[in-house]
Amino acid sequence: MLKLQEEYTSLRTLFILIAVAYLFSVTMRFIWVNEVSSVPQFHWNNELMISTNDGYFFAEGARDILQGNHEKHDLSPIDNPMSIITALLSKIIPISFETLMLYMPSFIGSLIVIPLILIGRALNQTTMGFIAALIGSIAHSYYNRTMTGYYDSDMLNIVLPVMETYSLILALTHQRNRYLIPITISIAVYQWWYPQAYALDTALFIMIIGYTLIFDRKNTYLYKISLFILIGILALPFMAKIALAIALFTFFHFKRELSQKLFWPIFIVIIGIYAATGGIDPILSLLSMYVFHGATENTTSSSLSFYNVMSTVREAGHIPFTLFAERISGDVITFVLACVGYIMAIIAYRPLLITLPLAGLGFIAMSSGLRFTIYAVPAMALGLAYLIIYLSRFIQITTLRYATITLLTIGVLYPNYTHIKEYIMPTVMATNEVKALDQLNKITSGEDYVVAWWDYGFPIRYYGDVKTWIDGGKHSGDVNYPASFVLTAKNSASAAHMMRLYTEYTEIQFNNADQSTKYPSKTKTTKYNTDFEYMMGKEGFKDSSDFVTALALPDYKMPKKTRDVYLYLPLRMMEIFPTVALFSNLDLTGKNQTQQPFFYTTRSVQDTGKTLELGQGFSIIKATSTLKVGAQSLPIKSFYQVGYDKNQKVHVNQQNFASEGLSVIYMASYGQFLVLDDYYLTSQYIQMFVFENYDKNLFEPVVMSPMTKIFKLKI
């Protein structure tokens, strides 16, 4: 018999256990604060900055809510729940906006301990729930995405489904009508907070139906549970779902002996509403994005062939088993034990079957990316906690039994604690980078655009209060192409013309979308799949190669200027520049395979006297001015030494050695070497950032710091 002996827990004890687990979780999240507080480049406005790019998206929305206005088409998420709650808390709590953003994940993410302890109590195993709360609150994956500074919707993305799970376990255990309303409320809140939860909540519905058909098919109450889950899932306004749930609850309350003739028509009507309001469509969309994407598929669907951004996102890729196990339970051993304990717990407490969708979503991380591991954390934490309690029951002496429980719990927590000590995440931006954006903010209007790679879109919008082409939520291959084109263009005119054209056409397409929404019957169906194709077509081109060639012409006719446009070039993009280039170094027709250019950068350099060892098998032979790559020797075409004087003015010393080959750039002020071919050497990013070489007829420098350079487009 695997079922543990039942234990009684008073409300006073329950509150104490919740308080202890919550304080433990929050305290662990202050370790990062203590470690990085002394780093000056991590601070802005006398506070540590956040450590996740997406956080600036929600911060922008909250800022604009507090200000009471924002620019049209600036994509500010003023209707996003995270932004709304942040703005509300900012009005209530007397701390700075930066401090609020920094600590919200710690204090809100730590709420995970409450439903885990309550699940234990619902099963009459509060101690098991308490241990699970300690483990789950600091497991690698959960900690990483709710640590101090990780200001993101993840702070409630697991708390809320575990609260759903608790409400379902409570209903399954007690089978009383009064537990039906909390089911709908918890699911409706989760749907409001995180619309992508649609698939998980639908899985819960299927799970309950399966549970009922297998174990208790004649139990009408179990069908009621599935009905109230379905109401929470419906694509209806929040209050409409709650009102529907209350109406049905009232009906069921007065019809205690509900006949199947009454129940099944109601059930069918709700199923009909589910189908009519979207049904399975959102699930298929999510599965297609994260589960069924081809590992070798690099192009997006369009009449033109663009590069698929999912090929470059680590969170959506395959991960090794060791990493998978560590992120869920701390290390491989504890993960295996957690799996054993989880199976035992389900056998002992059948209502825990309801946690299978969470565990299953976490387990698809092996093929679909590490971002999903966080979902398996609560289930595996319950498994470990059950195993600890189960093993300790063989010890008859009470004091020794509790000592064993304590030691085993500490042993399980230790690998997670060591991870926290070692996981020192930097802030998204450095102080000098924010200063550059703050300078930009002072000379721009909210209607101006900044052209930058998508990784920096949200921080630019937050600190610069401007618009961007692309960002962390808008970065498909077709919109990444123009930005990549500008950054890698070997011709300044091409880059400048693309900046003006795509900016103006982006706004035109926004206005077209507005008209389509306002007057749907009068809107003509467009034949263009993407904004880029729309721009190309309106400019009179059918062939993408002809369009790209035309952009290089100095006299290319530009559309009317409606706003200023800026080019953002950060030092930090140097590490990902080859990835940036992937999105424009292609034949848009898909007919020809382009040659991959060469780029290598390093700060790990050793001078042996005769050679400069650059790591990864690269070395410079000084005597012959050649580059050795493994066993192969290549001529160095040119060597550049670039550095700044005390006035921050750049100086370039160039030496030419051969008519062809790779070039080497020594960025002396950074201690960084670049080894690159002509494709990268002539790119606008390298020319404008490294050499500060730009066309004065087309660009004007507005911020020129060693970390960030920003140019204003003059046409």
Structure, explained:
Helices cover 52% and strands 11% of the residues. Strands 8, 9, 10, 11, 12, 13, 14, 15 and 16 form a nine-stranded mixed sheet that branches. Strands 6-5-7-18-17 form a five-stranded mixed sheet, with helices on both faces. Helix 7 packs parallel to helix 22 (398-422). It has 31 helices and 18 strands. The protein has three domains: 11-422, no CATH class; 431-571, Pyruvate Kinase, Chain: A, domain 1, CATH 3.40.1380; 595-713, no CATH class. The mean pLDDT is 91. The chain has 715 residues and is an alpha+beta fold. Strand 17 and strand 18 form a beta hairpin.
Quick structural overview:
The protein has 715 residues and is of the alpha+beta class.
Layout of SSEs?
Elements (H helix, E strand, L loop, with lengths): L10 H18 L1 H7 L6 E2 L2 E2 L6 H13 L13 H12 L4 H13 L3 H10 L3 H13 L1 H5 L9 H4 L1 H16 L5 H14 L4 H18 L4 H14 L4 H17 L5 H17 L4 H10 L8 E2 L5 E2 L13 H9 L2 H17 L7 H8 L1 H4 L8 H16 L5 H25 L8 H13 L5 E3 L5 H8 L2 E2 L8 H12 L3 H27 L12 H8 L5 H8 L13 E6 L6 H6 L16 E4 L3 E2 L3 E5 L2 E4 L4 E4 L2 E13 L5 E7 L5 E6 L4 E5 L1 H4 L2 H7 L8 E6 L3 E6 L2
